[in-house]
C-alpha cells in the first residue's frame, strides 16, 4: 500500500544549482548569444560587465554593470561570479591599427582575467579563434595564441579555451567579406571541411553559447582547448 501511495505522489524535481557567470564582451556576437541562450534557464545567472548599456533580450536572466575599463576589476568583484566568460574581441578594421587591436584582444583580456582571479574566480572560459598560435606569422592568430599562453599563467583552477571557426549569426555591424563567408560557409562545411580540416568549420554563435554553458558545469581542473568537434562533445556530455 505504501508503495502505491509513493507512486501516486507528484514527482519532485531536484533544483539545479545556479551558476553565476561574469560575462565580458556582452555586446558582441558571442556575448549576445550567451544572453539569448540564458533565457528560460534557471541554472545560469549572467552578470555582464560593459562600458555602456547593452540591449538585453526580453526574459534574459542578467544584469549589466557599467563602467570604464579601469573600473572593471571592481565591477568583476561586485559580480560575485563562479565563472568568468570572456567574449572580448575586435577587428583590425574597427581597431584601426595592430597596437589598438592588441590592446583589446590581448591586453584587456589579460587584465580582465587577472581581475577575476583577484576576485576569487577560479574558472575562466575564453573565446579565441581556430588556428591561434603564438608562433604564427599571421598577426591576428599570433595575438590570439599569445593571449592563450598568458591566460594559462594567471592561475585559474580551470581554463577553457574555445577556438571556433567562422562565426555565424546576426552581427550588429557589417563585416564585409565575413558576411559573404556566412552565406557560403555551410556549403564549404559540407563539401570541403572534413577530416583534419573539420576544426575550420563555421559554427553558429548560439552553439558556442551552449558550449559555454556546458563548460560552466564542468568540474575537472586544468587547461582545455575546444575546437569545433570539442565543443560538440562537451555539449553532448552535458545534454545541451
Automatic annotation (TrEMBL):
SUPFAM superfamilies: NAD(P)-binding Rossmann-fold domains. Residues 25-167 form the NAD(P)-binding domain. Pfam families: NAD_binding_10 (PF13460). Transmembrane segments: none annotated. InterPro entries: NAD(P)-bd_dom, NAD(P)-bd_dom_sf. This is NAD(P)-binding domain-containing protein. It comes from Novosphingobium endophyticum.
